[in-house]
Amino acid sequence: MAHTLYIVGIGPGNPDYVVPKGLNLIKHATVLVGSERSLEDFQEPGQITYPVTGKLSLLAEQIEHELNSHDVVVMVSGDTGYYSLLPYLKKKFPANPIEVVPGISSMTFAFARLNEVWHDADLMSFHGRQPAPEKLVYEAGKKMGFLTDPEYNPAHIARILIDAGWPKETRAAALERLSYDDEKIVDSTLEVLTELEGFGHSVMVVLG
């Protein structure tokens, strides 16, 4: 019988925010795959572990080898359906049984931290990509959420939005290291965020 590839969302990273089924799969996994940070946080003694690096083709070979003998649990940050490894793994293992256990995305967690709903927000990413300019056009009452990276950090994005016609006094927030003890949240305006340093890998929320 073919072994199962489990894709488990670990939310923002703190084990307190991982669903119980996901935690159980992680705890009892024979083979556990994840970022170096997640392996440090979640791995149990005796588990076979593989870190997720930039060499995804090598990782796929390692997973394929292990699936010959064991189930494999792959931890992905945030939710499995939001900019995760799920599409890549489905493409690499089309005939293999896959079970997906969702988590909490950093985006939904960010809106929760701001006591805001996100069902009416436009969610986009500046992490390794750029949204189409027409998606950034100002509209009164418009909500947006962005994933950021070191190049397109909240300060850079705030300047882009102001140049696109967004009022400087628009409420905007940058959120980093969500769920951890050193969590950082700057809830202010686009104008203030243009001077914000850091927050490379973070979430930015704009509330027009």
Automatic annotation (TrEMBL):
Report domain Tetrapyrrole methylase positions.
4-191
Documented EC number(s): 2.1.1.132
Enzymatic class: transferase
Which superkingdom?
Answer: Bacteria
**Molecular function (GO) terms listed?**
precorrin-6Y C5,15-methyltransferase (decarboxylating) activity; protein methyltransferase activity
- Record's keyword terms, sorted: Cobalamin biosynthesis, Methyltransferase, S-adenosyl-L-methionine, Transferase
Read off the Pfam families from this record: TP_methylase
GO BP terms: cobalamin biosynthetic process; methylation
Would you tell me the protein name for this molecule? Precorrin-6y C5,15-methyltransferase (Decarboxylating), CbiE subunit
Tell me the organism: Veillonella dispar ATCC 17748
- In the record, what lineage is assigned to the organism producing the protein? Bacteria, Bacillati, Bacillota, Negativicutes, Veillonellales
